[in-house]
Design brief:
Layout: E1 3-12, E2 15-25, E3 30-34, H1 41-48, E4 56-61, E5 64-65, H2 71-77, E6 78-81, H3 93-98, H4 113-125, H5 141-154, E7 159-162, H6 171-186, E8 190-194, H7 198-204, E9 207-212, E10 215-221, H8 222-225, H9 228-235, E11 239-242, E12 251-254
Parallel strand pairs: 3-8, 3-9, 6-7, 7-8
Antiparallel strand pairs: 1-2, 1-4, 4-5, 9-10, 11-12
Helix pairs in contact: 4-5
The structure holds adenosine-5'-triphosphate (ATP).
Pfam families: ABC_tran
Keywords: ATP-binding, Hydrolase, Nucleotide-binding, Translocase, Transport
Function: Part of the ABC transporter complex HmuTUV involved in hemin import. Responsible for energy coupling to the transport system.
């Protein structure tokens, strides 16, 4: 098991945001995390990345307790993909992607040929090789999100953690990012991502976990776990989850009063 989380408590200072959280994630598996605004998804991710100390329980990454791994050892195994953000410095897309090699380049060394090759491979995998020499500040939000995924991928991580990777993307770019998530898993990478659209779990995640009231209230195969009852509990609304002829996954639509 690549990531093993047991009875985890997490939070800030004196405040525990979540507790009793347990789940596993294997190589090549996609796990989707849902939960309401302020439910603790980002806090959980920060804890899994070693940016916040666990307040209880255990996180085991690649067979070693996270608390015994150095920052650089964690960075070589896990890459985080932030939401596409505005950039202030005019780096090219290639330069942004090479930055994902930081954990594999010595402290005073410059990127070498193997770093350039890994960056090219990541650009190709995301289908954005044609943007390599374009300035990052001059590409669209969707292209930035793909560039940030390529940056994470260039570090050759075993686990990708993506906090709302489809937020602020148009319909087409959402579908492209979800498709890329599936392809990364097919290449053996484990992916943990959060979303506010439970339909995304049905489209591209093998499993779903749901945080509510600081606890995991669901953990199972997406198709069996995304139910109207769970979505009512989490979001407080009625949701129709219905199969559509010709589609592999059911669709998930909120009932609007
Ligand atoms: N730096 C911080 N210090 C103290 N409390 C924080 C901090 N960041 C977030 N919180 C609080 O922790 C709780 C969980 O926040 P978190 O950002 O993890 O939720 P989330 O599920 O990612 O929310 P959203 O879906 O709105 O992004 C919230 O009550 C939030 O106000």
């Amino acid at each position: 098991m690549l990531l093993h989380v047991r009875d985890l408590a997490f939070g800030y200072g004196g405040r525990i945001v979540g507790s009793g959280v347990s789940f596993d994630l294997a190589a090549g598996e996609v796990l989707c995390l849902i939960g309401p605004n302020g439910g603790g998804k980002t806090t959980l991710f920060k804890t899994l990345l070693g940016l916040l100390p666990a307040r209880g329980g255990r996180i085991v990454l690649g067979g070693t307790d996270l608390s015994r791994l150095s920052r650089s050892a964690i960075a070589r195994m896990v890459a985080a993909v932030p939401q596409a953000h505005a950039a202030f410095f005019p780096f090219t897309v290639r330069e942004v992607v090479v930055m994902g090699r930081a954990s594999r380049i010595g402290p005073f060394a410059a990127p070498g040929p193997s770093d350039a090759a890994a960056a090219e491979k990541a650009l190709d995998a995301l289908g954005i090789g044609h943007l390599a020499d374009t300035v990052y500040t001059e590409i669209s939000g969707g292209e930035r999100q793909l560039a940030l995924i390529a940056r994470a991928l260039s570090g050759e991580p075993r686990l990708l953690i993506m906090d709302e990777p489809t937020a602020s993307l148009d319909f087409g770019n959402q579908a492209r990012v979800l498709g890329q998530i599936r392809r990364l898993a097919q290449a053996g990478i484990a992916v943990l991502f959060s979303t506010h659209d439970p339909g995304h779990a049905l489209l591209c995640a093998d499993r779903l976990v749901a945080l509510h009231g600081g606890r995991l209230v669901a953990d199972g195969p997406s198709a069996a776990t995304v139910t109207p009852a769970l979505l009512r509990l989490i979001y407080g609304i009625d949701v129709v989850v219905a199969p559509v002829p010709g589609l592999a996954a059911p669709v998930c639509v909120p009932v609007v009063d």
